[in-house]
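Anyone? Bumping this.
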Amino acid sequence: MASMRVHVRLGEPLWRQVNTREVELELPSGAVVGDMLEALGRRYPELQSYLVEAEVPPTVFLADAMADLTTPLYDGARPTLIWAAAGG
Amino acid sequence: MTLESKAYHMANCAFVNLSSGEVRLEQTPPSLVRSLLGGRGLNMAYLAALLRRAGGAAAVDPLGPDNPLIIGTGLLSGTIAPNAARFNVSAKSPETLGLGDANCGGFFAAAMRRAGVDRLIVSGRAERPSYLLLEAGTIRILPAEAFWGMGVYEVQQALKELHGARAVAAVIGPAGEHQVHMAAIMTGKKNAAGRCGMGAVMGSKNLKAVVALGAGKLPVADPAAMRQARIEQTAHLKKSKVIKVLGQLGTPFLYDVSNQLGAIRTRNSQDNFFEDSLNAAEFEKRSDKMLACTSCVVHCRHRNTLGGEGPEYSTVGLLGANLGIASAEHVIHLNNLVNELGLDASSTGSIIAWAMELYQRGLIDDELTDGPLLWGDFERVHELILDIAHRRGFGDLLAESSQARHRLPDGAQDYLIAVKDLPQSDPHDVRYIKSFALGIAVASRGADHLRNRPTLDILRLPDEARRAIFGFETSRDPTSYEGKARMVAWHDDIYAVADCLGICKFVTHGFNSPHLLGYEHFARLIEAATGMHFAEGELRQAGQRVIDLERLLNLEFGRTRADDTLPKRYFDEPLPARVTKGHRIERAKFETMLDEYYQARGWDRAGRPSAERLAELEELIRLSAEAGDGGQGPAPG
């Protein structure tokens, strides 16, 4: 089965859970953003609760646009994961 | 004079006339407390009454003796309710010439209530520098010549040396003394009643400090119920990841969020992204402890290794990216400087950025600015902040904040990032998320996110989740205008209630998470603290009443629908890069959203509350006026 590589940038505070700001993932061809989050959670269990919890779901940017769980990925994609909140 | 502690909360209201030296101690009627709770809500009723008595809101000189300075604690401030540390300071604003109001944490609110005063209303002007000493329900006016000229932390240390370690003070620094329009009232090293120039009003009264010598615990109606509520609500809050992350990283972690999105205000909002060198990790390296306010369960405030506290995300953005300053260490220096001088970091960063763009565009030149004013020039910014605080040279002009536009060339106004003349408080560019844009446009005190920011809008929660939270339909798309007006109104109400109770937004439902403290939690705390029972709906109605009261005040200041707008740039210039690229606010859609907002609030198309509501508000203002009279006539100086 063909595969693709994506480079995921982890924003604040997600990168701290795994101590790296960028993760390379190999995903099956045709994978979507939801597949990427599942793969991340499998590789990094400590990140899992940030990826699935409803309190503050992660926001994914891809190619300068906001992505959904069903947004298709492609080989060489560089999605960014952030965790949106507000401050004073 | 001595004020007896009353059986109900928020009863003790002190009137101090610095011109005559009169101190009167009055009781706030229970019906007013029931209607407006405390904090911001009660402040507004007294402000409306006192401004009318002094000749009308529009006529009163904000830096004259008739402008009342109202320091009001929240209904739960000083109790063990989670994060109940806050107080509001209200007056006519010299920065905006409209509704002035600032909210502040730290330890002062609890100390003030434990000193027997729930609300302090200061009018007149002292002949010489003075400070107030609050202790066991007594208030003394004391000379402050020895403290005049001192910085914020310096004067607090001196007051502690004089009155003992339990003295907690709210003070002004040199900026307040010089009546800089963006001067803050400060407590501790960083906690600021920063917005709207309340420090200038305090300075105009020759009042350097209010010192509270609190003692004992604040009595509550049912201590066991209060303890149980505290335990359960703390446990509930500690399940939240947002609370955990704020406690670990403080608010600077939000810089990366806005920056990646392409929504960090950069070089006066000409750009929308900046350097990663201002990410939270850089501030973490220069922080040795996380600090908290009274009864806090979050601990979000950094103690920095350069001798101060902070910076917050807003300061990182506005004294960093917005000025083109990329060094975290420089930003911490500037943060500590504005705090020690007693300046509002948000207005200061916004106004200097405005001046830098005017210089960049050739609208002002070296002759006016006393030399080059270039993006990223840390030394110049440092010097300019000192000049603003002391009203020297070009700094004297910038000390006027938005009002400086009257002395600047035509066109300068177009580059001012302010609403109702209040510079925008946070560093998030609102052109992408339409609910954020509406929020700052309609916020009662001007461009401010702490009145109604619907942060949940960016989370793109599923339809059922949003429906469960708000109780109505909204678009999941943050760039859509649909349903956002009701969302803003929903946030208006709950944030107003939090401000009336003295509760921090960081634990308030909706500010960062749908899993924090909502009306049901607040109602339980109020009943335990005061014995007053509120249904959840009644609490929300109290919030709505406060918003309507502020609207009435704004109408009396001469504000109209035309003031519920945005900086010109947000309408006319699309964001230049990243996810937000191409987004701006469409005027026609904004006006429709504004119509919907007024409708959600029950106002007419001009933004006027209903006749029935206005009659109810008039009664509250009348009660406040009577309480202020104390049978002794008017209070103004």
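Late reply, but here is one note on the structure posted above: The interface with chain B takes residues 9, 11-13, 49-50, 53-57, 59, 61, 64-66, 68, 80, 82-88 of chain A (CB under 8 Å).
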